[in-house]
Request: fold
Amino acid sequence: MPAIKYSRQREAIKNFLMTRHDHPTADVVYNAVRHDFPHISLGTVYRNLTLLADLGEISRLRVGDGVDHFDADTSPHYHFVCNCCQQVSDLEMDSLPVLDALNEMDVDGKLIVGHVTYFYGTCGDCRKEEAH
Reply:
């Protein structure tokens, strides 16, 4: 891929994502970056998020809620999606050897080279709300 021209807006988007651990949507990123770039459009934010994801500088998460979420942490890790509030967060746990063992495995003629795993359930805040 050819070198990409530096963009202050793209840098601001990436820096914002690096401060977050809740895996925001493009709308959340847009509303945050607009404070420094009042004339930026949602389309520009989404195009830059897509470019950063395509370059491997951030991760795009598709967790089944119909919108993309973005994560500045590109290291292998698992995510938790709350079925109640729809928040997406990192799941602090060791990798699962059974899943890691699938890498480089030939299954039914298909070579596995990686995986993305989402865990679904109820977050601690929603569990507290349910208890009341």
Notes: The mean pLDDT is 93. The chain has two domains: 8-71, 78-131. Residues 8-71 form a domain with the Arc Repressor Mutant, subunit A fold (CATH 1.10.10.10). Residues 10 and 34 are 12 Å apart (CA to CA).
